[in-house]
Amino acid sequence: MTITLYNTRTRQKEAFEPIDAENVRMYVCGPTVYDRAHLGNARPVIVFDVLYRLLRHVYGPEHVTYVRNFTDVDDKINARAAKSGREIGEITAETSQWFLDDMAAVGALEPSIRDQDNNRAMPRATQYIAQMIVMIEDLIAKGHAYAKEGHVLFRVRSYEGYGKLSGRSVDDMIAGARVEVAPFKEDPMDFVLWKPSDAQTPGWESAWGRGRPGWHIECSAMAHELLGEAFDIHGGGNDLMFPHHENEIAQSKCAGHDFANFWMHNEMLQVEGKKMSKSLGNFFTVRDLLDQGVPGEVIRFVMLSTHYRKPMDWTEKKRQEAADTLWKWKKLAEGAERQRRPHLEVVAALSDDLNTPLAISLLHQKFAEAQTQEERNRFLATLSLIGIGDDWRDGVAVSVENAFETVTLDGIANKIVEARSQKDFALSDELRNVLTSAGVVVQITKEGVSWERGPNFDPSKLEGLK
């Protein structure tokens, strides 16, 4: 099946033809690790996880290489360390693990490339300083960069194609700039490849003195080292298009690398129709939602309900609708068996520039049609293609928390039975009301008491009951 993807570079959808079908390669810009990932940070992870799954389905898991990096050298990290009094390495190790855990909770597969020590962590910028220095030296030798006052800067005007990705001209960018130009710059648009470090700041020895890399050079050096001279797809949020991705292209091309064939960008996220902002009180992290009892699969479902190239609005209504839908789908999946035969219509929808809204619409249709065991099996396989249901076993998400909840709910149900046997209907009704208020569907018949978690199940409302 042919995959078509919107290429930001050409501003049109194009048939995707990998450079090497035996090794399809994708690079996605990862987080700067100094704090928890906010909800907007999860969108590119989920979007490109779906693409990763699609590529694995079409070309085979062993033929897809996916790199997503950690930026663990950055002035924000330095500022956090100075403010907290903690070591930089301690902060980046902690926040990297937070990111991995939170993205796993929303169903993201781990990228295929790990760090240099084969740890679960993704490749870290600090592991590739030597490669960055080599690339910077090469750019200086070719006249595309210059050293001054301990800094190394890229000569933007030395690259003819600068601005094509974002659709900007250099002159217009300079005319619109309102920032003071550093005295060591030849041109206002030149950007930093290397900068000096003081005794309190992380630094590495180089021909230009002790210093650290600028932000943009790390992705160029890491992509080249891990994926080669040319690779298939480079992705990220559209907030990275300029200047980050524009600068990546310039320095990589001037270093003689073909770099990426396809550039893909997801749109930004809003909350209840407004930009997410701490000042508006609508800013929250992925962990905030998880701790509030919002399942990761619900977060993922809401994200995928909007096409990745359109702004996404997170609303309470969408969260509730997603929870209701997934509860029904999970019930249908009870007894389903694992297989790798997703519905071709859904594969076709995803192959058309990741049309996840259409894929979800088709899944609603397949849900309504699923009557036989084979249809339930294929439904579960299709869900897995969009990253939902990976942790379902016989239709139930398996976790320590769920096991504990089951014991608790069984215990309360037994108390209802005991109360009714003693004709203590007041206690029976009270216990039933507690379960109902927690989102548990309770049925009391002559045969006994049965229960199941409803879509609004909130275990916190059972605290204190044993």
Tally the beta strands: 17
Helix content range of the residues, please? Answer: 40-55%
Oligomer: single chain
The main sheet orders its strands as 4-3-9-10
Percent of residues in beta strands = 15-25%
Distance between the terminal alpha carbons, to the nearest Å?
54 Å
Q: Flag low-confidence runs.
A: 393-404
Q: Quickly give the structural class.
A: alpha/beta
Q: Can you describe what's shown?
A:
The protein has 466 residues and is an alpha/beta fold. Strand 5 and strand 6 (151-154) form a beta hairpin. It starts with a strand and ends in a 13-residue tail after the last strand. The protein is elongated and about 90 Å long. It has a four-stranded parallel β-sheet with strand order 4-3-9-10, sandwiched between helices. A four-stranded antiparallel β-sheet has the order 5-6-7-8. The chain is built from 15 helices and 17 strands. Helix 12 packs antiparallel against helix 13. Mean pLDDT is 89; it is low at 393-404.
